[in-house]
Amino acid sequence: MRKISGFIISVLLLLPVWCSAQDTIRYPINAMKGIRVGVDISKLLLPVIYSGEQMGFEATADMYIKGNLFGVAEAGWLYVDLNRDAYHYRENGLYGKIGVDYNLLKSRRPYSNDIVYAGVRYGLSVFSQQADQVTIPGYFWPDATGHRIPKSTMQAQWLELLFGVKAEVLKNLYVGLTFRFKFKTVSPGDDDSIPYRIPGYGNGNSGFALGINYQVSYNIRF
Amino acid sequence: MDDLRFVASLILKILMWGGIASMAWVAFSCDEFCEESNRTAVVVNFYAEADDASLTVNNVWIKGIENNDTLYARSAYSQVMLPVNPSADVMSFAIKNDTLSADTVIISYTRRDGFISSECGCVTYAEIQGEPDLKRHSITRMEVVNPSVSTVSYRQGVINAENIRIYY
Question: Does any CB of chain A come closer than 8 Å to the CB of residue B154?
């Protein structure tokens, strides 16, 4: 009798769970396992966009943490060479960013790894700038020619807020697009020489910058 | 097939928005035109010796001694700007107003060049050394209040900056 009543109670207790399991199919939001590594295609197009005056490279790595969160690290390099009548300016530097992405997409597709996300990054750049063959207009006085600005090293830091999408186009191969809003938190220390670009950030003279990335990445499963 | 259609539409959307976004990005990243703030000048304000009040001086005439060129030609000013000579560490000016004889102001400074922007190029900043040498006739005294000479905008009118005070 006890066994029968126990069985009946167990069935009654489990009934709601059994029913909900039948009525609602739950899809995992993030099924991606492994580490996803990629490159930013837009950085490889810099020589084309800027007629050879800029070149750069950026690599990314992200990994699913838990819930809707991905941990992200990005690193890159930028080289600038401006050869004009009044100066020859060069800049060279590295940058790194660290942050998290939050997946906004509640997937209706079973085991889909596509994500639409919002994220934050904190970036740091260390770079050098110099100029030679400098001509400074005198306006009232004669122009000064043959001047040099010696090489100096600077650093800058910034905060990024970003929105993006990553689609798994082939198994483990992703294509993504990211829009970035960047806010400088630490400016280069030299007030007299404003860098043309801060690697990873953008215009050296601006406290706010926009950025766009096209990324191709591959998920290395483990 | 449904999967392929979904992926293809997502890629096309990414490419479309990416194309629009990249055009906007290039437009945003275009350099601004160079403004006149790529000039550095010593900002000089005139004061009355009697009460330290700001003074508008009539018929101000200023000439560069090294180049024998007129900088200001007989107008009333309470403020004048003396351009930094990027090729020398000293510059001299003759200053007259209603008087017949000119005061001579000799300013010594150290120079350092800096990059402003891709459109404006480079400028020469200056740090005034000591007090200017003054061969005076109507100027009673001069005072360096800020030795750091930076860029100025000639379009702005009277600016809130001051390197040297001249007292009459």
Answer: no
Question: Domain residues of chain B, as ranges?
Answer: 1-30, 36-167
The fold for domain A2-220 equals Porin (2.40.160)
DSSP string computed for B111-155: EEEEEEETTTEEEEEEEE-SSPEEE-SS--EEEES--EE-EE-TT
Handedness of CA A190, A191, A196, A199 (dihedral sign): positive
Place of tokens 């437009």: B27
| Domain range annotation of chain A | 2-220
**pTM, two decimal places:** 0.78
Task: Determine the Cα–Cα distance for residues A77 and B28; give it in Å rounded to an integer.
Answer: 21
Give chain A positions within 8 Å (CB) of B6: 109
Render each residue's pLDDT in chain B as its tens digit; 168 residues: 455 556 556 666 666 666 655 655 555 555 556 765 778 999 999 999 999 999 999 999 999 999 999 999 989 999 999 999 999 999 999 999 877 688 999 999 999 999 988 888 999 999 999 988 888 888 999 999 999 999 887 666 677 789 999 999
